[in-house]
Amino acid sequence: MTLPRALDFLAVPERFMAVSTWLAPALGALAAALIGAGLWTGVSAPSDYQQGATVLIMFIHVPAAWLSMFGYICLAGASFLSLIFRHALADAAAKACAPLGAGFTALALATGSLWGRPMWGAWWVWDARLTSVLVLLLFYLGYIALRASIEDEGRAGRAAAILALVGAINLPIVHFSVNWWNTLHQGASVFRPGGPTLALVYLIPLLLIALGYMAAFGSLWLVRIRAELWRRRARVLSLQAAGR
Amino acid sequence: MKGLLALMRREFNLAFGGGGPLLALTFYACLVALLPLAAGRNPTQLGLLGPDIAWLALALASLLSLERLFERDYEDGALELLAMGPIPLEAVSVVKALAQFLAINGPLAFAAPIAAIALGGPVSLAPMAILTGLLGGVAFAFVGGLGAALALGAKRGGLLVAIVVLPLFAPPVIFGAAALDAVRAGQSSLMALALLAAYAAAAVALSPLAMAAACRNALD
Questions:
Q1: So what's the ipTM on this one?
Q2: Which residues constitute the domain of residue B92?
Q3: Chain A residues with CB inside 8 Å of B148's CB?
Q4: How many domains is chain B built from?
Q5: Which positions in chain A touch B178 (Cβ < 8 Å)?
Q6: Which helix (H) or strand (E) segment is A8 a member of?
Q7: C-alpha span between A95 and B150 (Å, rounded)
Q8: Taking the complete model, does pTM exceed 0.80, yes or no?
Q9: pLDDT tens, B49-92?
Q10: Where exactly are the structural domains of chain A?
């Protein structure tokens, strides 16, 4: 099997290095611009009449929650490609993706907790969404732990890739079961269904920041893949040097 | 067919040998005995949480012997022989998980009602405690076997299996606890049981594929 044409630049590490050397900083600059613009419009928006200034936490929290799921999709996709095509670059991409996704998930949980204290009067509420995201973080941590504890790099990569795909099948089931459990134990959710829709003054900065997070994720991912490829090259070189 | 029977005999002997069920049951008893020491012996307070904790402790106790499920055969080369033999690794995985279920999760399921009642649950809970224990036990054995196969050749295998497997246990833990709660509330537990059975069936159908893939990966 060969890669489809559109992904050609991913097939050759040298070409990937050539593209990512300018793409990573470009995405980083785009991220800074988008997040800056989003924060500017967000801070200058009027405070919410119910939530006051704490509504600003939303701009950090909600995109992080989106990215936490997007990150797992990227992880599962890269794992799938590395299992099917046995391609080193896809494996490096999966390895580089997991800590990033875990980071965004942890950010979503931490900011959610900070937001929950003034809103719900508690640092933590066993709400369906919070619980799902917590399990998602555990999935990321399991992936990282499995990868770290198998010595042989190729073997660790493939075992972790199988786990990532198992997780991808299980996440919708976890999501469903946690939602079901939530309706079982509390009648009304803290998030009112069909509740107040988001006003345009908040929606525009939120979308700007979400796009900025996406760009930042892409930039950091590329940087981490480059670092991983360099690390592998350095290891080969040191082995060669030791063998002489 | 003859090979499959011989494999079954071998796996069951391995699973039951070395005090397998006894160790799991003792561990389970220890967990159950420690709960009142932490939560207090007030019967109404204990009765609120007791049966659910007895159910959760089943999931924990089923983790214990997973580490050796594939690792033992991996270390002494038996897994390589099994991989070269006529029986596909998928079937070997099914037999191993089945042996794990019969030796560990089955006996635990029958200890579950004793624990649930000792922790303040009503006696009427006993049939449901056994049923959820058996259905959940199938899920725990097959998903747990998957974790055991993935951790082949890892440092700190036992802890790793637990970390990999416990998040996957979230759905069956929810469904089983819901079935027990429904009985206590006098409601129909049919939906929770159906969901638990569906999860167990899916685990039996899908996890052998991943177990076999993980074994092949560890061997090559």
A1: 0.89
A2: 2-219
A3: none
A4: 1
A5: 180-181, 184
A6: helix A8-11
A7: 16
A8: yes
A9: 888 889 999 999 988 888 888 888 888 888 888 888 888 889 88
A10: 23-41+54-230
